TrEMBL record:
Family of the protein in this entry: Belongs to the ABC transporter superfamily.
Protein name (database record): ABC transporter ATP-binding protein
Entry superkingdom: Bacteria
Residues covered by the ABC transporter domain: 8-218
InterPro entries for this protein: AAA+_ATPase, ABC_transporter-like_ATP-bd, ABC_transporter-like_CS, ABC_transpr_LolD-like, MacB-like_ATP-bd, P-loop_NTPase
Pfam families on file: ABC_tran (PF00005)
The entry's keywords: ATP-binding, Nucleotide-binding, Transport
PROSITE patterns, per the entry: ABC_TRANSPORTER_1 (PS00211), ABC_TRANSPORTER_2 (PS50893)
GO molecular function, one term: ATP binding
């Protein structure tokens, strides 16, 4: 079977919360291997869209296709299952387990997915430039290093889609640069990345910017 070239597609996607239309007839299409930034003012619907695309929420109407699968009518169990197999998430807050080393934190993600495999956990950390900090605890790492452990954790199970929500929000400029370089490296490797950000520097590093305004895609 040939693999679909489209990683993400939404058709007339709408999400309402009571009277509030958080997402209004949104149509987006992201190719496999694309690096896309999702930008827009506060309240424009970025989180709402991300939550649907990462199977944390479902739409009020419209369709969502992820990695060639129609995810529109997934129930909670199916969403959880799909998320575990297809989606890697990087958050602004690191959510690392403080008493586990960098390597163990990454292996824990493997454990929840299938089985821990130390060589591939090491490889994921090497990929993000953290091969020299495997045995460090989170509090022995800089913010940027912790975020790179989180990126390794997000990609260790080889998810086809990587989502990042303000991944450098808590970092200084130097660490922001290193994390950005890591995403660019992953992009060069052909991974599909969708990044929510307010930061024009990050937005400028993406291949394309999808802009939201009052729940609508404006460009
Ligand atoms: N659970 C909810 N219940 C009611 N209204 C909601 C809910 N979630 C979001 N909204 C509303 O939907 C709109 C879009 O919110 P959303 O969080 O998607 O914006 P955002 O672009 O991510 O904003 P920010 O950049 O501030 O995080 C806002 O008007 C918000 O108040």
């Amino acid at each position: 079977m040939t693999q679909p070239k489209i990683a993400i597609e939404t058709r007339h996607l709408t999400r309402k919360f009571g009277d509030i239309v958080a997402l209004d007839d949104a149509n987006i299409s992201v190719r496999k291997g694309e690096f896309v930034a999702l930008m827009g003012a506060s309240g424009s619907g970025k989180t709402t869209l991300m939550n649907i695309l990462t199977c944390l929420d479902s739409a009020s109407s419209g369709e969502v296709w992820l990695d060639g699968v129609n995810a529109t009518a997934f129930n909670e169990e199916e969403r959880r299952e799909f998320r575990a197999r297809h989606i890697g998430l990087v958050f602004q807050q690191f959510h690392l387990i403080p008493y586990l080393t960098a390597l163990e934190n990454v292996m824990l993600a493997q454990y929840y997915h299938s089985v821990p495999d130390e060589p591939s956990a090491r490889h994921a950390l090497e990929l993000v430039g953290m091969g020299h900090r495997l045995e460090h605890l989170p509090n022995q790492l800089s913010g940027g290093e912790q975020q790179r452990v989180c990126i390794a954790r997000a990609l260790v199970n080889e998810p086809p889609l990587i989502f990042a929500d303000e991944p450098t929000g808590n970092l200084d400029e130097e660490n922001e640069r290193k994390v950005l370089e890591t995403f660019q490296h992953l992009h060069d490797e052909g991974r599909t990345i969708i990044m929510v950000t307010h930061n024009p520097v990050l937005g400028g590093c993406a291949e394309r910017i999808i802009r939201l305004q009052h729940g609508k895609i404006v460009s």
